[in-house]
Amino acid sequence: MKSMTPHRQLLAEYAEKGSQEAFHELVKLYIGMVHSAALRLVDGDIHHAQDITQTVFADLARHAHAVSREATLGGWLHRRTCHVAASVMRSERRRRKRERQAAEMKTLRESPNEALAQIAPVLDEAINELNFHDRNAILLRFFEHCDLRTIGEALGSNEDAAQKRVSRALEKLRVLLVRRGIVLSGTALALALGSGAASAAPVELTVGISASAMAAAQPGKGLGLISKIIIMTKTKATVIAAISGVILAGGGTTLVVLNHEKDYAAEYTPPANPDPQKILQEAQADTKAGRYEAALAKHVWFQENALKYNPALVGVRSSFALSYFGDLAGKYPPAMKKLKSMRNEAEETIRQKDVELKTGALAFSQFAVINRTLKENDKTVEEFIWLDSHNPALAKSAFPFADSDLIKAKEYKVYGRYIDPDRSYAQMLQTFKVTSRLRQSSPIPQAREFPQKRFANHAATLVALLAVNDRKADADRIATEAAKEWNDPAFSAELEAARNGIVPEPWP
User: Fold this and answer.
1) What are the tens digits of pLDDT across the range 365-376?
2) What is the pTM of this model?
3) What is the signed CA dihedral for 280, 282, 284, 286, rounded to 10 degrees?
4) Which domains does the chain possess?
C-alpha cells in the first residue's frame, strides 16, 4: 500500500476530522503556487488573482473527501486554478463587452438630435427613393409612431413581418444616406428618427390650418361655434379656459378652443403581464398626440411599478423616463405638479436616517434628473453638500449624478473629495473614441470636430480639478495621457493652463 505524503495526511485529517489547523497548514503550503498561477492566467490582475485563490481553496474545503482520492494534491489545485481563472476571464470579457456596448448606446442616446440635424438636409429625399412598402414602413414607424401590429395591419401582414420590413427599410435608408456622405449605424439612425423626425407643430398653427382648410372646403358655410365644455373633477368643478380666436375665411365665425386642467392623474389600469417599456412608449405617444392626462397616468404608473416587473429598467426609470416625464410637465401643469411631488419624496428618502446606499443613490439620481429637467440644478448641488456633511458614504454613491452640477457651481473642493481620476478619464476616453468613429465620415465639419472639442474640455476640466485639490501627480499623469490622444496645439495649451488650476468653462 502506497504511503501517504505529509500533504495528503493533512488533507485526510481535515476531510475526516474537520481539523482547521490541518487545513491552515495546507493553505500555507500551496497558496504561493495557486496565487502565482492565478496571476499568470489573469494577466497580472491582483484583485482577480486574489478572488481566484480564495475560490480555489474554498473548493478544496468543500470537496476534500473527493480530492483525497486524487494522486497529486498539487495537480488538483493547479487544474482547479486554471478552471476558475478561465471562468473569471470569460465573465470579465463579457462584462467589458457589455460596458463597451452600454457606453456606445449611451453616447448614441445622448446625441440623437445631433444625428437628426446631420441627416435632415437629405432625409426626405432619401426616403422618397425607397420603394412603396419600405417608405410606408419608415413613415409609419418613425413619423406616425405606430406599433408593429398596426404597421403589419397597414401593410397587409403580421407583427413579425412588420418588424422585418422596418429593419430592412431602415437598412436601405441607411445605405442611401451613406451614398450622400452621411455614415450612421442602424441604431444611430433609428434613434435619430425616433428623437423627432416628426415633431409637433405649434398649437396655434394647428388650429388656424384646421379652420382655414375646412372653410376652404365649404365656402360660404363657415363653422358653428364650438360648445363650451365643462369637466367636473373628482374634488371640484373647474373651468380654466384658454381662448384663441381664429377668423375663418369667408365665414366670420370665431373658433373657441377650451382647455382644462386637472389637479390629479387619471387612474391607469395596465394589461395582464404588463410590459413597462411598452407602457413608457405609449406615454410618449400620448404626449405627442396631446393626450396629456393619459400620458401622465402612464408615466406615474411606470415610475411606481416598472421595477417590480423588470428590475433592469432601473437606469431607464431614473434617466430617460424622467426626461420624457419632464417633456410632458412642460406642456401639462398637473404633470409638473406631480414631478415636483416626486422630487420632494426623493429628497425625503435621501435624508432618512440609516437609508440603504442603493436606495439612497437611486433616490438621488431621480432627484438630480428632475432638477435637470426643471433647470433647477442648484437644488442638486445643495442636496449633495448636505450629504457631504451628513452622509459621506451615500455622497460617494450619489456623486456620479451630481458631478457636472458641482463643477458648474464651482464647488471644486467638495468635488475633489469624491473624484476618481482613472475611472473618469477612462469613461471620457471611451466616449471620445466611439463618437469619433461614428462621425469621421460626416460631411459637416462641426460634426467631425465635436468629439475632439468635448474630449478636450472634459480632460482639461479633470486635470484642473485635480490640480485645485493638490493632486499634482494625478493631474500631470492624466494631462500627459490626454495629450497623446489628440495632438493639438490649442488642446496642449488648455492642458497646461489646467495643470495650473485654471478650470475651463463647462461644456455646454
Assistant:
1) 889 989 988 889
2) 0.47
3) -140
4) 6-108 (1.10.1740.10), 117-194 (1.10.10.10), 210-260 (no CATH), 276-499 (no CATH)
